[in-house]
Design brief:
Metal-sensing transcriptional repressor; Metal_Tscrpt_repr_sf; Metal_Tscrpt_repr; elongated; mainly alpha
Length: about 100
């Protein structure tokens, strides 16, 4: 399977994961400090949503990269592809 080749995309994904990592550390602290379960659960749901969102973003970027490679340098086709994949990302984002 291919890797993501766009540096901007990789940076975006890594930043999203680092934020989620920070949230996870915060949840660990909450548990160590004896915070209420509902508060902990709320933060867990937020991390889960952040990871799901990152996964969707990675998947759409991968699709754009691979399909774009098959389109070549057709600007109209690439523009349409970007629009369609933006809609796909929005639809997948609503699944959660």
């Amino acid at each position: 399977m291919s890797m993501l080749t766009d540096d901007k995309t990789r940076t975006d994904l890594l930043n999203r994961l680092k934020r989620a990592e920070g949230q996870l550390r915060g949840i660990q602290r909450m548990i160590e400090e004896g915070q209420p379960c509902q508060d902990v659960a709320s933060q867990m749901a937020a991390v889960r949503k952040a990871l799901d969102s990152t996964y969707v973003r990675m998947t759409v970027c991968f699709m754009e990269q691979e399909l774009g490679a098959h389109l070549g340098s057709n600007p109209k086709g690439r523009k349409q592809l970007t629009e369609v994949l933006g809609e796909v990302q929005t639809l997948l984002g609503k699944v959660r």
